[in-house]
Design a protein that fits this description.
The chain is an alpha/beta fold. The protein has two domains: 23-46 and 282-377, Aspartate Aminotransferase, domain 1; 62-280, Aspartate Aminotransferase, domain 2. It has 14 helices and twelve strands. It has helices spanning 2-21, 48-61, 76-89, 100-111, 126-134, 147-156, 180-190, 212-216, 244-253, 255-258, 267-280, 283-301, 321-333, 363-377, and strands at residues 34-35, 93-97, 117-121, 138-142, 163-168, 192-197, 224-228, 238-242, 313-319, 336-337, 340-341, 351-356. Strands 2-8-7-6-5-3-4 form a seven-stranded mixed beta sheet, sandwiched between helices. The chain has a three-stranded antiparallel beta sheet with strand order 9-12-11. A two-stranded parallel ribbon has the order 1-10. Helix 7 (180-190) links the parallel strand 5 and strand 6. Helix 6 packs parallel to helix 7 (180-190), helix 12 (283-301) runs parallel beside helix 14 (363-377) and helix 13 crosses helix 14. The longest helix has 20 residues, at 2-21. The protein is globular, with a radius of gyration of 22 Å.
Length: 383
């Protein structure tokens, strides 16, 4: 046994050394400085109202759920927040998962059966990729948001099984938005079930803040959606929403639901408080869009490759891994919490800085950040 472990250690250390040499070795680091990398877009994670509600719920319900929801882990609070969330997004039903990753694995591994075909955006999130791999459907990968390529693939598919189109609405690393209306029309035309990950759009887009499906006016055209509670909502976990029969099937068959200890029950109270705030304070979304527009304008005016119009996720692709790490470290030294994004999170050769805008940023901070960024980049990235 020791010899086996020694050989395994040598193999793993060799892999770690390779990651180091390629500029891909990562380390965990707590937050410090001005937040420009989290997904706490509306700054709800530390809102006193969420903390108070959750703390009170901990005192009443305890810290842990003690088991899966099909054993002793179920609480009335879970069912209540699922009902409220479903009503909020305009769905018949919703099911809460401990993470968005678990929710996406559940959706795709449960519904993508043998004989089906799934059409999948090349830049979809890793959780969707893994869910697709676990599913048994035939896999058709199309170039990122390429509507023409998708149309050709869909019309060329004549199998007897169900067709699915899987996409993010707001892509987490590029910050761009899928052509959702066109997708919905194409799905109606070809009998394709549309599955949309709204993780980075929920709380940010739509008159009620439910996401880009609401803004596009196509919520009724979507089979299932995943919406995170751990990003703009400031809490944790995620909801899958859709027809009642589909959600019931997830309860019966989704392995990440069946075999996972339920989340702490008190998290439901924090999500409930976040939904109250989203309904009462739409100005938070308006401020986020205003700060985003200001940052994008300054970056574009500085000659950086950034669109003036776009989402709260703002990438600057540098390509080289070591360069991305160095620029991020220079910005951290100036007091800005920016992290380098490298493969496999993004495709090879597209290492980048990914700025996430939030409502706590003011005009002076944004201006100082852009000035520091220009110094860190030098003249390497120019329009």
């Amino acid at each position: 046994m020791p010899q086996t472990q020694a050989a395994l250690e040598r193999r793993v250390r060799s892999r770690l050394q390779r990651l180091q040499a390629e500029g891909l070795r990562r380390s965990v680091r707590p937050p410090t400085g001005v937040d420009l990398c989290s997904n706490d877009y509306l700054q709800l994670a530390a809102d006193p109202r969420l903390k108070q509600r959750m703390a009170a719920a901990v005192m009443q319900l305890g810290c842990g759920s003690t088991g899966s929801r099909l054993l002793r882990g179920e609480r009335a609070e879970f069912s209540a927040i699922e009902q409220r969330f479903a009503h909020w997004v305009g769905a018949e039903s919703a099911l809460y998962f401990s993470t968005g990753y678990a929710a996406n694995l559940a959706m795709l591994s449960t519904f993508l059966e043998e004989g089906d075909t799934v059409f999948f955006d090349r830049l979809n999130h890793a959780s969707l990729i893994d869910g697709m791999r676990l599913g048994k459907a035939n896999k058709k990968i199309f170039p990122h948001t390429d509507l023409d390529a998708l149309r050709r693939l869909l019309h060329a598919e004549h199998g007897a099984g169900q067709k699915y189109l899987v996409t993010e609405s707001l892509f987490s690393m590029d910050g761009d938005i899928a052509p959702l209306r066109a997708y919905a029309a194409l799905c109606r035309e070809t009998g394709t079930a549309l599955i949309v990950d709204e993780a980075h759009a929920v709380g940010v887009y739509g008159a009620r803040g439910t996401g880009l499906l609401e803004e596009a006016g196509i919520a009724e055209d979507v089979f299932l959606t995943m919406r995170s509670a751990g990003k703009a909502l400031g809490a944790s976990g995620a909801f899958v929403s859709g027809p009642a029969w589909a959600i019931e099937y997830l309860v019966q068959r989704a392995r990440t639901f069946l075999f996972s200890t339920a989340p702490p029950p008190a998290i439901a109270a924090a999500i409930d408080a976040a939904l109250d705030i989203l309904a009462a304070e739409p100005e938070r979304r308006a401020r986020l869009h205003a700060v985003t527009a200001h940052l994008r304008e300054l970056l574009a005016n500085a000659g950086l490759p950034v669109e003036r119009d776009g989402s709260q996720i703002v990438p600057i692709v540098l390509g080289d891994n070591a360069r991305a790490v160095q620029v991020a470290e220079d910005l951290q030294t100036e007091g800005f919490d920016v992290r380098a994004i490298r493969p496999p999170t993004v495709p090879e050769g597209t290492a980048r800085l990914r700025f996430s805008v939030n409502t706590a940023l003011d005009a002076a901070t944004v201006q100082r950040f852009v000035a520091c960024l220009q110094v860190a980049l030098g003249c390497e990235v120019q329009a």
